[in-house]
Amino acid sequence: MGPRSYAPELCAFLNLIPVKWLCSMWCLLGFIGCAGPPSPCAEVSSGPQTSRVSQALSAPGRYALGEAAPYPDEGSLSAYRDDLRASQQIRRELGWTLGQRAFEMVEARGALAQRPIPRFQTWYGVEDLRRVFQYLEQWPEDGISGDQFTEDALIEQAFARNTSAVLSQEAWPENRLEAFLADLETDAQVRGAGGISRVLYSPRAAMHLVKSADAISECRPAERVAVKESEFVEQVVHLASCGVEELGPFRVAADGRFVAEAEGEVRLQLFGGGDCTRNRCEATGPVDLELRAVPTADTGGAVRLHFDARPPPETSCLEGGFPVGSAVVKVDYRREGFGVEFPEYATDASALSDRSDPAEWQPLGTVEPDPESIYRLELPGGNRFRLAALHLMTKELDHWAWASFWWSASPDTDFGADRPPMLFDTPLRDYKMCVATDFTEADPDPRGGAVDDSLAAALEQVSRPHGASWCSNPYIEQGAGNAATNCVGCHQYAGTDRRSEEILELPGHGTRLSEIDFPLDYVFSAAQVAGLVD
Amino acid sequence: MATEGPVIRELFGRKTLRPCLVVLALLPELLLAGCRDGGRSLPSDGGFPQDLILYTESTLQDADLAAQAYAVIAAAGDGERRCQECHGLTVSQIRRWGDHTNAALDCIGARDPALPAQAAEIWNCLTDGASSDEADGATSLDPEAMGFLTTAAPLLWFRQLFEVAYAGESALRIAQRRGSVTMPPPAVDSDGEPLPDRDLTQSELDLLLSWVRRGLPLLEEQVPGGGKDCAPYVGPEVAGHLIDMETQGWDVLNRDRSLAMFGCAEGQSGQACLSDYPLTGSGPTNGWTELGVLRILFTTDYASSFWTRSSADGRYVAHGGGSASSASIIDLERQTVIPSLGLYDSGFFPDNSGFVLMAVGPGTQAGFCEQSLLDSGPSEITYEEPECSLESGIGLYQHLGAVDGGDYWTVYGPFVSDDGGHRATGPLRADFSSASSVNFVPIIYDGSSYSPRAAVSVATPSEGDAVLSPSGQLVASRIEGVDGAQSGFSLRRVDAEPEGDSYAISAPLIAEYCIRGSKVGFSFDERYLVLHRYLDASDAVEFGFDGADDPEFAAYLERGAANIYVVDLLTGDQRRITRMNPGQYALFPHFRSDGWIYFIVRDPYDDALSGEYVVASDAVLRLQ
Lengths: 534, 624
Description:
The complex is a heterodimer.
Chain A: H1 6-13, H2 17-29, H3 59-65, H4 81-86, H5 88-103, E1 105-107, E2 116-118, H6 126-138, H7 151-162, H8 174-182, H9 187-192, E3 199-201, H10 203-211, H11 213-218, E4 232-239, E5 245-252, E6 257-263, E7 266-271, E8 275-276, E9 280-284, E10 287-295, E11 301-308, E12 327-335, E13 343-344, H12 349-353, E14 365-366, E15 376-378, E16 384-394, E17 401-407, E18 431-436, H13 453-462, H14 488-491, H15 500-504
Antiparallel strand pairs in A: 1-2, 3-12, 4-11, 5-10, 6-9, 6-11, 7-10, 8-9, 12-16, 13-14, 15-16, 16-17, 17-18
Chain B: H1 5-12, H2 28-31, H3 62-74, H4 91-108, H5 116-126, H6 143-146, H7 156-165, H8 171-179, H9 202-213, H10 219-222, E1 233-234, H11 236-248, H12 250-256, E2 294-299, E3 305-310, E4 316-320, E5 327-331, E6 336-340, E7 344-348, E8 354-361, E9 365-370, H13 372-375, E10 388-391, E11 399-402, E12 408-412, E13 437-445, E14 450-452, E15 456-459, E16 463-468, E17 474-480, E18 486-493, E19 495-499, E20 502-506, E21 509-513, E22 521-522, E23 528-534, H14 554-559, E24 562-568, E25 574-576, E26 585-591, E27 597-602, E28 612-617, H15 619-623
Antiparallel strand pairs in B: 1-21, 2-28, 3-4, 4-5, 5-6, 7-8, 8-9, 9-10, 11-12, 12-13, 13-14, 13-15, 16-17, 17-18, 18-21, 19-20, 22-23, 23-24, 24-25, 26-27, 27-28
C-alpha cells in the first residue's frame, strides 16, 4: 500500500452522495486539507510563438517582481476524476477556483516588494528560462561546483540568481534601473513590469522544464502510439474468512475500466477513485487504485477483478510528467489604441446554436471595452494592452485541469452566470469561463445542473453526454472546428509532429483520446526549451 | 498567330541580359475580370487589331504639354504619387529616362507588334545585346533601358508584344512577365487585393511620350529646384544619442540577452570570433585588406541581386538571386543555401527575431517571417509557413529598426537602384528631388502579431536611399547635390510620438557628412556607418597612383571597383577598409550585432568564380 490521501477516503466513506460532493468541493476549493502531493499545471500555445524578445519579461522586470509566486495547489484531484467527469457543476466550480488562484493578488518579492500583483503575472516566461539556462551553463566558472548541490538545489539557485540578472547587465546601470522602478507607479504599470509573454509557467512547472531540458532537446517526434484496444485482465482473488485483504495497486489505463465484483458476503472499499455499491466497485482510468476486501461471513468469499492493464500515459520527452503544483497560462493580450480592433463574441445559447459547421467562432463585431471593465496593463515603454483571454492548465489531474477565461461585455450571463461571490472584486468579474477535465462528457444532464437559465441553455448547446467534452475560448480557438473542441484533445499532441490544423481535421476535431504517449505532457510550448540550451 | 510563336522565340534566342529591376507582380488586370486597353476595346475574340499605335502625338503647345506631362509622372489622378514614390523626379533623372525612351522608340520605329515578324524585330532591338536573365532562361526587357516605356507595359500595344514574344505560354505567365517590367509596380492592399492602379492611361502616355519626343521642352520649369550643398556638420544630438545607445543600443541589449554570435566559440567575442574561416590575401583575394582582417565565410555559386543583409547574430545572410530560386538565405552554420521566394531587399530585425524579403507576393508584398523558421532548417521559404505573413504597404528599398519594448519600424522612400557590379559600376547617382520624403511605417505589435500601419511621410528634400538605425531613432540618407550627383549623407533624429492610430513623426537634421557612397548600414551601437563606394578617377591619388592618367590606374578605370568605407558618426571621419583589385566589387556592407561587418565581393573578371564571396571584416572592432 502506498501513500494515500485520507480526506478522499473520508469523503468516500460518507456514502451520502451530496455530502460526498460537498466534501469534494471543499477539497477542491482548498477549504480543508485534502492531503496528497501538490500539483499545479501549465499550458502552451499550439500555434507559433509570436511574442518577441522586446515584449517579454525583461531582466529589470524580474528584478522588480522577484521570484515567482508558487501555484497554491491542494494536491492531486485524481480521486475526484469521476466526480468531475460526471458533473458539469463540480467542474465549473473547479474552473472558477483555478482562476481565483491564478488571479489572486500576491505581493511582489523583488524590488517592488509588497506591491500587489496577480499571481500568474509573477510566473516565469521563456526569457526567464533562457537566463536560468545561462546561469546553469556558467556555474563552474563561478567557482561553485555543481557537485555541491542536488540538481534541484542547483536549479533553484539559478532561478534565484535570475531575479538579480539585471544587476550585471550593461544596459541597466544603477541610475537607469532606479528610474525604471520609480516609473512603476500605477497598478497597470506594476502589472506591465512582467511584460506580456504569451506563455507563463508556475515555479514548479518552470523547474520541471529546466530539469527536462536534455530530454526535450534530444526528443524527436516518435512514431505515434495510438491508444490500444482494451487489454482486460481478469483475476479472481479468493478470500479467507475473517480477514482484510488489501489488493493493488492497480494501474488503470487512460479510458480503461476497472471493475471489482464481490462473490459471497464481501464488503468492498476502493481507494484512489471510482465508486462502490454494496458488492461492486467501478472506476475509469487513468487512475491508480487500491481495493480493500473484507469478508463478512464465515465462509470467506472471493473478488472477481476486471481491469484494463494497458500501460499508463507516458511522457517520453520529459523527465516524467509535470508534477502536481505545475500551472501554465497562455495569455491573449490586445493592444490598446493604434487602431487595433477588439472583437466581441457572444457565447449565449443562441450564438452557440448558430455556429457554423465546422464550428468556428465568429465575432459579433468590434467593441471598445470600458477601461474599468477589462484587465489592463502598461508596459515600461508605455504601450498598453488589454487581456482578452487567458487559458489556464493545472496539473491536479493526470490529463490536467483546463480552465479558459474570456472577456465579455455582459460577463454575468451564460458562462459567467455562476461566478462565485469570491470573484466579484477580482479581474475575473469581467470574464466568462469554461472548463474541461477529461476527453469525454459524462454528465448525463446536458444543462449541467446549472441553476441559471442562460448558463443551462448555453451548456445545452455544447454538451454531448457520452460524447466529447467541451471548452473553447472564442478569442483563442480560432480554427475551423475549433469552437467544438475541449482543450485536452488538442494538447494531447504536444510534442508530436502534428500541427494544429491537422489536429482539427481529425475525427471530432481532435477531441478524442488517441495517444498513449504524451511526449510533452500536453505543454506545446515546452518545445521552446530545446532552443534555449546549447 | 500562335503558330508563329516558336519562330519568334527562336529569333529571340538566349542572350545574356543585364540583370534588370524585376518586379514580381501578378498583374491586377488578371485578377480583375476587365482589362484596360488604353481606351480601346478588346476585340471580342481576344485578339488584337493589326493597326496598333503605341502613342498619338499630342497637339498641345510646349508649355501645356510640359505641365501636363510632368503632372502625369508626378502623381496619379487621385493624388497618389506615381514615379516619385520611389524615384526623385529631378531634371537629370527625367532626362536620363527620356534618353532611354527615345532610344527605345527609335528601336520600335513604325513597326506593328501585331505582325509577328515585326514584333520579333521590335523585341530583338529592345533587348539588344542582352538575353536570358530569368530563371527559366527566357529573355526579358530591361526596365531601365525602356525608360518611360515601362509605364506603357499594361497598355494594349505592349500586351500584344508580350503575347507574341512569349507565345505558347499561359496568360498568367505572360502577365507575370509583363508585370515584371511595369512601372509603377502594381499595388495591393493588406488583404492582397489589387488597389486602384496607378498605371498610365493611353491619353496620359500620349502626353508623356510626346513631351519626350519633343526633347522635354521646359523641363527645368516643371521640376522643383533640387539638389543642395553639403555642409559638414555634427550636431550635439549625435553625442547625446550615442550616450543613450551605451545602454539602449541593440549591441548592448543583444549582449545582455546573451545572443549567441555566429562563429564565436564559448568564451570568444569580438575579433576572436570567426577564426575558423580563411583569411583573404592569396590568389584573387590578394591585397584586399586595408584595415583589420577579412575572412571568407561562404562562396555562392550564383550572382546575388541587389543588396545583402544578415541576421543580428551573423548566422544568416540573405539577398535576391539564387541558383535555383529568386532569392536566397545562406545559413552559415550549416553552410547551405535556403531557397526563398521574393526578389530582393532582404532585412533582419535587430533583436534577431525575424526577417523580411520583398516582392514575395502580388504587388511587391513583403514577406515577414520569424527567424525561428530558419533555425528549424527548412528546405525552402515559401512565406506560407505559420511563422510568416505577407504584408502590403511597405515600399521597396525598405530598412528595419526596432524599439526595445515597443514596436518595429521600417522606412522607405525614393531610391537609386544599386545592383553593384552588374549595371552600377561607377559613382551612384542621387536623383532625389526637392519633393522627396521618407516614409516611416510603424509595425505595431497588436498582442499576437505585428502589422504595419499607414506610412507617415516626412519631407526630406533632395534626400533618398534612407536607412533606419537599429534602434529606429536615426535615419541616414544620401543627399543630392548638383545635377543628380551625390553631395553627402544626412543624419536625422526620429522623434515619434503616439498619435491616434499611429505616430506623429518629425525628423530634424542633426548631422551632415560630405562623403559619397551607397546606401549605408548602421552599426548596432549606432556609432558607425558602413558603405560601399564605386571607384572613379578622383580616387587615383588615394589609391597611391600619380593621378587618373597613371597607366597603372588604367585597369581600374576600365574594369571599375568598389570598396568598403566606415564613417564615424561622432567625428565624421571615414576610413577605407578594403583595397579591391580592378574589376572586384566589395558591396552591400552591413554590421552584425557585435561589430563585425559582412559584405559580398563580386568579381566578374574571375572566371574561376561562378558566384560571389561572403566576407567578414573586423575593422570597426579595431577602431574601438
